[in-house]
Amino acid sequence: MHTDTVFERHRPRLFSLAYRLLGARGDAEDVVQDAWLRWHGSDQAVIADPEAWLVTTTTRLGLDRLRAARSARRHYVGPWLPEPLQISEEPSPEQQREQAEQVSIALLAVLERLGPEERAAFLLKEAFDYDYAHIGRLLGHSEANCRQLVHRARQRLQAERPRFEVPQAQHRALLERFMVASQAGDSAAITALLDQNARMLSDGGGKVTAALRPLLGAERIGRLYAAVARRGLGLVSRMGWVNGEPAVLRFHPDGQLHSATLAVVDGGRIVELLTLMNPDKLRNH
Questions:
Q1: Could you give the angle at the alpha carbon of 41 between the alpha carbons of 35 and 46, nearest 5°?
Q2: Residue 164 pLDDT greater than 80, yes or no
Q3: d(CA 182, CA 189)
């Protein structure tokens, strides 16, 4: 089989792995391109298992880039949130099929709190169903150590994730009520939709005005949205989708996307609001 054909057959899997590792589309594309260059520079005649070789190369390149990115993100202005793959108002049938393969921004944000090798081991086990022996060979660790990495990652993720999942229709309906209340500046209605200890993160990256620290507490968040509504920026809010999850999309009067807000829902209330405002992360959507 032609070398390009072999690589292209595995490209979607490699990109999916790189994106889950890095939480940034551009970085993931760069890693896959670097893997392609290494593939073309290798002696493919001696590679018995091209898929294993490509996954190993992509993982190691991804880990190197993740370590560099984590260092750079320490200097990021305000909270850092992952870059979405897809933002749309009404996904096409093809996009709807793809949504099942996508990973939520909220999960990527939680994965960001793991160490690089914890994150890689967890993803290889949970998302790609590799056994511990394979993960050990790939990461250069013992099988027992990889079990520990995955176990710790699961514990940390479980502590961070909602206790009670809700159906997507209920999630979307709750977010739609939040959209209406926030557009009206109804602080009491917003507060009623939020968990008392809700948290809000806004990622402006220093490019636009956004909260530089997480905002904690339902009443404080409600007051902030009421103040924003009083400023009368002329933004138009519509329901949409980000990485296959319901989201509130806000647009400038000229139709340009201003922001995308997602919600983490636990039971019947919103426990976390994640707002993407950095224009670099909204571009091309």
A1: 100
A2: no
A3: 8
Set out the domains of the chain in order of their start, with CATH numbers.
Answer: 3-95+115-160 (1.20.140.160), 168-282 (3.10.450.50)
Mind listing the pLDDT tens digit for each residue in 44-94? Answer: 878 888 898 999 999 999 999 999 998 888 899 999 999 999 899 876 666
Q: Report residue 1's pLDDT band, with 50, 70 and 90 as the boundaries.
A: low
